[in-house]
Amino acid sequence: MKIELVDGSEATCNLVNVKVEPVASNPEQESSSESSSRNTTPVEEEAKPAVEQAKKTKTRGVKVRYAFDDAAALGEDDDFLPSGNSKKKRRTASRHAKPELPDIGGYRPSKKKRINRKDPNRCHVCRQRFDDPNLKYFPGPPADAIEEIIALTDPSLSLFTGEEEYMSELDQRPILKLTQFGIYDEPGHLCHLDGGAIEANHLLYAYGYVKPVWNDNPGTDGGIATKEIGPINEWFISGFDGGEKSIMCFATSYADYYLMAASELYEPIMNELEEKIFLSKTVIELLIEDENAEYEDLLTKLQNSLMPNGTRVSEDSLLRYAEFVCDRVYHFDAAGAEDEPPLILSPCMRTLIQLSGITLGKRRATRKLEKRRQPKAKKGPNWTKATTTPLVGYVFESFFRDQMDQGEDKFGPTSAPRRTRCGICEACQQTDCGKCNFCRDMVKFGGSGRSKQSCALRKCPNRAVQVADDDDELDAVLDSEIEVVSLDVDHKKPVKRHAYDIEWDGPELKVVDGLTFYSAAIVNGDMRVFSGGHVTIEPDDPSIPMYIAEVVALWEDGKSGEQFLHARWFCRGTDTVLGETCDDPRELVLIEDCEDLLLSAVVKVVNVKYKQPDPIKWKTEGGSDDPALFQTEDDHSDTTFWYRYLYHGRTGRFEDPPECPDVVSNNKGCHCCDRLDRIRQRDCAKLGNKLDSGGFDSVAWHEMDIKVGDAVFLEPGAYVMRGPDGLVVKKEKIDPEEEEGFGDDYDEEYYPEKYRKTDNIKGSNNDTPDPFCIGYVVGIVYNGIIHNNLNAREVCLKVKRIYRPADTHLGRDAGFRSDWNLVYWSDEIHNMELSKVVDKCVLVCSTAIDEPIEEFVRSGPNRMYFNKAYNPAEREFEPPPVEAERIGSSSKGKGGKSLKSAKTTQLLYPSYPKIEPLKTLDIFAGCGGLSEGLHQSGVAKTYWAIESEPTAAQAFRLNNPDAAVFTDDCNIILKMAIDGQLEHNGQLLPPKDGVELLCGGPPCQGFSGMNRFNSRQYSSFRNSLIVSYLSYCDYYRPRFFILENVRNFVSFKRNMVLKLTMRCLVRMGYQCTFGVLQAGNYGVSQTRRRAFILAAAPGEKLPLYPEPTHVFSRRGCQLSVAVGRDKFYSNCRWLLSAPYRTVTVRDAMSDLPEIPNGAKQEEISYGGDPQSHFQRWMRGVDSESSGVLRDHICKDMAPLVEARIAFIPSKPGSDWRDLPNTEVRLKDGVTTVKLRYTHEDKNGRSSSGAMRGVCSCAEGRQCDPLDKQHNTLIPWCLPHTGNRHNHWAGLYGRLEWDGFFSTTITNPEPMGKQGRVLHPEQHRVVSVRECARSQGFPDSYRFFGNITDKHRQVGNAVPPPLARAIGLEIRKCVFETDSKKKKEPPTVAEI
């Protein structure tokens, strides 16, 4: 070894080449040094000449400069670092030197925000608490231990003899191994390497047995007992042994040490570091496989992973070490390419950051940036580049090209505030590098400035995470009161009047009421305006483009002498929901709006053509590459326009213009006026024939013809409910504090987090409205003077009240156990205003039904039946009177038996029409929820399905054995079809003219935020699965098209995803509409808002969205959609109530047998009969498997999680805030500890004066990582971040028996996205079958794979009842179109 001293002298020992910079000598240290050298070993004697001089100039913490330190300071030190190393910044400060802050562009942390280092309860170096039972002290060095610099002179540790002619710089620095080691600080506490002491310039030392690098024995044999190894300058991870066990190293001024086995005392501390590294590795690997993984997916990954020592990692450990994990992911991102999406923005990491409350990048330069590993092959779908048809490709390419050329200003102004940097993280403290692609594009570096992106080194991760979180918070904003608006369009357009000379051209046509009509007029001497022509009208506001209108009529007012025209308005394509995606300025849409205008408002005569598609030719044009079919014409003349659709502005519907009737009832000959007049007349009642007995036989109102003997739905609350005492009975509500011990008086020390609870209970039906009341009309009365504009409030209906089971004295339990369609007759007569009538319904006595009740109620809408009468005075049920038994029966035979057949029954009542099921292709089919619902509606039969996930595809096969299921990338299948292939893997591909219904829900990962597209996301969306799905539609041109997606689909990228999707459908020639539906309104026990785009081919009828069948919580029924400055509404009228009661958690799962946590038996017996209508429907009367219950299995929770679940009360609204702060012995033998509250909090103190904060951030300071607590019954992370996240309401939440599920997700976890996943009473999470019931899957429906696969299949599916409701609407349209083609008008009973 050659030691070069400062004075130039040399000494030869082992191979170390260091240059020691002297520090002021200390006489006391010199004296101590001399006395300590009296008893020396032979090895020490050999090294004595070189060591003595070094000790004279050395203190503990000697400042050492290596020969390659200069290169390292210049950022060129990657050459001497082992491949893949991730090193901490080298600390070179002396022990006595003032710590130097890193150069961070002048930034210095605020003194106010620094952690208080004078906490008397903590060590000032390692920050461990003195009262921590896990605090361990340095036990002293091993026996006969020697100092590090002496140990390094031992020849047994050297790889070289000292006679080598040449030696590289890497070989000049010893690399050794250290076993049976421990690491301690100056006060003598055993501490972590990653605790932050090294970064804070505190001194850490190690002890143990030093071994040569080739010795793999972790024992002490062959090792040199060494003390005071250090100070430690840095630590790093060199790699993984066998891919799992991490290889950790640290460096001192003299050598690098690879760590082997820790000492028995230090082993628990080392295990924690290995656990952190294992967590980081697992998280990064998961995100490489699936960058859109959710937090629940990470928990599943951890549950299925084992550490090298054979133990599992819990969620508690993940949250405890979240800062370390996020820091590793952040630096992993920083080492990636500039255009790669950062893993830190994945849903999984954002949830982890929210739960743990960390700030990214605070610890500057904790390690060198490592090179990214090559991504592994993804386990999930690995989608190829989108296969697009020419039309779809043209729409996207042309739009994106225009947007990139014109910049983002074309998107219009934004109301979103500009986000600022956090100012704390490492990235915010950097300066522009001037080298990355983003810097080169900046104007100050000579670029164009088009990308408007910050430097790659200055991308603030905290800002990016916050923006991504804001994108996901839309649903919370939507939970507001339902907005009920009129969908009628009738408004005036302010226009400018000109001083024109006007002359009539041609003779008078007619004179009516003083108005003289003409066929044409000459305006301003050169413009000939004529009936049937088109003109432009100048708006009063100069910023608005010219209005365009069709001239319907021309006349002169005989009284005023002014000339008028009647205008039928058009709307420019850019003023529709398409917005800026409508690239043809000549494209118009017709709207249902007209107006009388002065003829002097005309500016110019224009030509507007109607492009009527030929349905037969249109079908063959699918996928054509003829540019004339889809490219915009270059002629942008301001006098030539065209239109194809009738547009409804309030609902965003594009429809084929209706055929104009031959007869028009108004003098102007305007069909639009007739329609608007009919709309205005809907609010006016028209009485029928007067009866001799008094009253009238019928009344027409709101397009309903109500007759005596009809049953009607009435507004909720139409009947005042009174009890036996005559007092008004109010609706029962659940009292969340009804149980003893959980009211206003509770032990605040035992329940320290209960103060966070509010009266708002997630998943409660307290605000859910009642279903419609039902009445049987026995008389229609009006006592005023009959005229044409009768007010509905003036007309009185005499109705007999029809009781629902829940309205009787049996109460809510009877409503739960009875059929939804079952009611009770009564002779109780009420006078009811006509305005309280909602709609007509069917009411039949059960004796008049000659088919099974189940078939009768499901064969048509709104069918109610009764078999008994209810006497409210006596609170008894009686046989219905004779006249009631005849309701629904045309005649009786002997014995009172009905003579009519089932076919006659179908003709008497509104029924779902019978059609031939459409041949259906289901893309992104999943396990088949959408297809199942469409099959139930009778509108479809799935012949083909495409699903790339093998387990989901197999589940689809199990339930649809006759369908051809392709487990392939949909882009490959479409490419094969376009290329003319007929089959794939032995299955026939869909023929081009064989698909009649196309349905699917394409994923939207990669562009699902609310902010504008950036350049990378343009490319992502242009090659997305939505584009592929639209290309399927363009190629096959089905009769009907369904696109299902998450509710936020309509808002992604400032509505641009919605606009482009609608634009493609319009370009194809489809009629289309969009809307949001709540699955809870159609018979499932969960809130699940989903966006649907429906499209119909030219000549078909575009379906309406189905009216709700079940009432649901009002907070989940806000279905309007904001697109830019406009708001669009659903066509549904029943927004505040519905025919049937809500479906509850009790409906979904109360009949299922009890199972323990982690139940795995896939087939068991029901153990009881169904209790409610929903349960009977789910089990199925004729199902072969009605006696066997499948997939009633649940996830196995960790012991700590299971204990928390057991302490959650079984009362409404219970969640983590009801957990007690106590010690519990877990089933694995571990005992939890109490959560300590050590800081003030903005919520004040408890009534006993106890503090409520668990971290220094509660006092407005930065988070102290050592404030973290683990193994507590109350998860430390939830009170830590609760004030920022609505107190984490719902996490570890129990479902409420009379409430509803949160949106069923793919992986139920108590601290996941939907935390209310606990059984109402049992100590477990919900099972696969319970989740399937919440989605409306019948019990006979099969799922495939392990429990995680099955949960994913259920969570990703469309609820079949919702799909059935949509299918019934399509079924009506198919029947109507087919009837027109056959020239057979539908019967009155078929709808």
Automatic annotation (TrEMBL):
Catalytic center residues: 1004
EC id: 2.1.1.37
SUPFAM superfamilies: S-adenosyl-L-methionine-dependent methyltransferases
Keyword Chloroplast: no
Keyword Transmembrane helix: no
Low complexity: bias regions: 888-899
Signal peptide from the UniProt entry: none
Family: Belongs to the class I-like SAM-binding methyltransferase superfamily. C5-methyltransferase family.
Protein name: DNA (cytosine-5)-methyltransferase
Organism: Daphnia sinensis
